[in-house]
Specification:
The complex is a heterodimer of chains A (about 160) and B (about 450).
Chain A (H helix, E strand, L loop, with lengths): L1 H30 E2 L2 E2 L7 E3 L2 E2 L1 E3 L9 H16 L5 E6 L6 H21 L7 E7 L10 H7 L1 E6 L2
Parallel strand pairs in A: 6-7
Antiparallel strand pairs in A: 1-2, 3-4, 5-8, 6-8
Chain B lengths: L7 E4 L23 E5 L6 H11 L4 H16 L2 E3 L9 H6 L3 H6 L4 E10 L2 E10 L4 E10 L4 H17 L8 E8 L6 E8 L6 E2 L7 E6 L5 E6 L6 E6 L5 E3 L7 E6 L5 E8 L2 E8 L5 E3 L7 E6 L5 E6 L6 E6 L6 E2 L6 E7 L5 E8 L2 E8 L6 E6 L1 E7 L5 E7 L11 E7 L6 E3 L4 E7 L6
Parallel strand pairs in B: 2-3, 2-4
Antiparallel strand pairs in B: 1-6, 4-5, 5-6, 7-8, 7-30, 8-9, 10-11, 11-12, 12-13, 14-15, 15-16, 16-17, 18-19, 19-20, 20-21, 22-23, 23-24, 24-25, 26-27, 27-28, 28-29
Helix pairs in contact in B: 2-5
């Protein structure tokens, strides 16, 4: 009797542990797909429902499906607000040499710019600047922090 | 800013023993067996001392110069300066004629002695280098300069001693330009800073109002090229550190970065980024003519000339990942030279011409290494969480680079420091700076 009660309690404790740890891993997974950041911790909004930034995989400048979705929203918003110009700020994580990262940030911001242009935004409303790894949003030295830092941020210029 | 220094070198004894010296420093193995050397404090009489205290507010300048020499010799990893407490002979007497038994008793193999005097407001420093075992003078020189230059005299003495004992030119009368860093990692304040090779005489050249990166010395004069985000337009700038005058290099419609001078100091080679593509360009500083050197949809950056100016090494991701390439100075004959595992960046051609130093990233670790100019003979000198951007000492013997620390789980504990390492992989040491520091670049010898 006592013994079965003990096992029952032990089982419950173990179950609780499993559920908790599953939650923990799920949380990180929810914020990253592959090594691309998919969370919203650092994201700001140009307008309601229009996120200001897109994220990239390590060493990559290819736009993900989610990034393209974000940029289409930005393009729509820019079409509605035709007097607004923007700066696209390209960034890299801290795991690369400084000079290469400057080039990589420029490549990422231009990937975003090209996409906005295919959705009808004129090139002369968009300027581009790369900060390389100089302006991280997250100062952590871990994959999640790096994923938040590999980004192109659309900032109002006027 | 730095006055051109007229150092008149007077050879006291010309016919010293160039040929039959017995002591020699083995420089092929680094610091396994550093040479025991005694630096007897440079002596000065009371009159000189009291005048110098008035002028420099420093007591016993001779001792201070000896300390500079000792510190340089120790940091080279090739010498072991002996503790002054063990010295038996008085400095002024040793300078006239050492009692070699006294010095060999404390195991000194070489001895430096000297004297400081003040003539007509000029500091006159003479020194002698002695071979203790052979009981012979190896070298005797005297320098005259303004008293405020006393530290440089220490560096020049070290260069002369180093060259006499190793057979290679020294690197002590040199300076380092770097980026001084401050503030949180997400909002770093960066300023251009310059200091003597041993970390003294730090001066700040910008105020920190805009981001500045990657300063590099002109090998032939006191000009510096660097990247500045002035008015949020990242462009390569040219700065004269004597006058403080600066100007933008060229008129590019986008970011220019990764600048370096050609070996003759007449051109700047750099990357120009446009529409997501970075290629390598040069600009002639005399006629302002811009030449495009690479034309490839990949990222081509971090260019560095060979010392004869005929070749350029750079890094490119044209293979899919960052690797090192070599090409002729006109951009033809591009050849990949790095084939090891991992990514390769920041190639820098050695001033001796035979090696290329680089940064390598492999399995989450960063390495500083060297390889021959055809990519063979790769040697990794040091491994760490993050380090990059090696710069050669002017004699091609030592590399200086920067290293960043990993932050903890709360994102705290970040620091950036300068480190140096001998070409052999020995004698790795932190170079002290007043603040956090990155992007070091080594000057040429200020005097020869």
């Amino acid at each position: 009797m006592n013994l079965s009660k003990f096992f029952k309690n032990a089982f419950l404790v173990m179950l609780a542990c499993l559920v908790l740890s599953a939650c923990a891993t799920k949380k990180v997974q929810n914020q990253m797909q592959g090594d691309v950041y998919t969370g919203t911790d650092t994201v700001e909004y140009l307008a309601s429902g229009v996120p200001d930034r897109v994220f990239f995989a390590t060493n990559e400048s290819v736009l993900t499906t989610a990034s393209r979705d974000t940029l289409r929203k930005q393009a729509e918003w820019l079409r509605k607000n035709s007097k607004v110009n923007v700066v696209l700020e390209g960034h890299a994580d801290e795991r690369g040499t400084r000079e290469y990262n400057l080039a990589l940030g420029e490549r990422r911001a231009n990937a975003a710019k090209d996409y906005l242009m295919t959705y009808g935004i004129s090139a002369n409303r968009i300027s581009v600047i790369s900060y390389g790894k100089e302006r991280p949003v997250d100062s952590g030295s871990n994959p999640l922090a790096w994923s938040k830092n590999r980004r192109s941020v659309t900032v109002k210029a006027n | 800013m730095i006055k051109k220094i007229k150092l008149s070198i007077i050879l006291l004894i010309i016919a010293t023993v160039q040929s039959n010296a017995l002591i020699e420093v083995d420089i092929t193995r680094g610091n396994l067996d550093p040479l025991p050397i005694a630096v007897s404090p440079l002596s000065s009489d009371k009159d000189t001392n009291s005048k110098l205290i008035k002028e420099l507010k420093i007591d016993k300048v001779g001792h201070k110069i000896s300390n500079v020499v000792e510190n340089n010799l120790k940091n080279s990893g090739l010498f072991n300066p002996l503790n002054n407490d063990a010295f038996l002979q008085k400095p002024d007497i040793a300078h006239l004629k050492p009692r070699f038994e006294d010095w060999s008793l404390i195991k000194a193999q070489a001895l430096i002695t000297g004297k400081v005097t003040l003539n007509d407001e000029k500091l006159r420093v003479e020194f002698r280098l002695w071979d203790v075992l052979a009981g012979k003078e190896m070298m005797a020189l005297a320098f005259t300069t303004v008293p405020s230059n006393w530290r440089r005299v220490g560096h020049i003495i070290t260069d002369k001693v180093y060259e006499r004992l190793t057979g290679e030119k020294g690197y002590f009368d040199t300076r380092i330009i770097y980026v001084a860093e401050d503030g949180p990692k997400t909002k770093r304040i960066k300023k251009l800073a310059i200091m003597d090779q041993d970390g003294s005489n730090t001066k700040y050249l910008t105020l920190g109002n805009e981001l500045v990166l990657t300063p590099r010395f002109n090998p032939t004069n006191q000009m510096v090229t660097y990247l500045s985000y002035f008015k949020n337009l990242p462009r390569v700038y040219l700065l004269d550190i004597e006058t403080g005058v600066q100007e933008v290099v060229g008129d590019f419609p986008g970011m220019t970065f990764a600048p370096r001078f050609s070996p003759d100091g007449k051109k700047i080679i750099m990357s120009f980024a446009m529409d997501g593509n970075s290629d390598i360009y040069t600009m002639d500083l005399e006629n302002r003519i811009v030449d495009r050197i690479t034309n490839h949809p990949s990222i081509d950056t971090s260019p560095s000339y060979s010392p004869d100016g005929k070749f350029i090494c750079f890094n490119s991701d044209r293979s899919g990942y960052q690797q090192i390439y070599v090409m002729k100075k006109d951009g033809t004959g591009v050849k990949r030279i790095s084939f090891g595992k991992g990514l390769y960046g920041t190639p820098v051609w050695s001033p001796r011409g035979d090696l290329i130093a680089f940064t390598k990233l492999h399995k989450g670790k960063f390495y500083i290494g060297v390889m021959r100019t055809d990519g063979s003979g790769e040697r990794l000198l040091t491994e760490n969480y993050y380090q990059e951007a090696p710069s050669w000492s002017p004699n091609g013997r030592v590399l200086i680079f920067y290293r960043e620390t990993k932050t903890d789980s709360e994102g705290k504990g970040f620091s950036a420091k300068l480190w140096s390492i001998d070409l052999t992989g020995y004698n790795e040491r932190m170079v002290k700076t007043e603040s956090d520091a990155s992007d070091p670049s080594w000057s040429s010898l200020l005097s020869n």
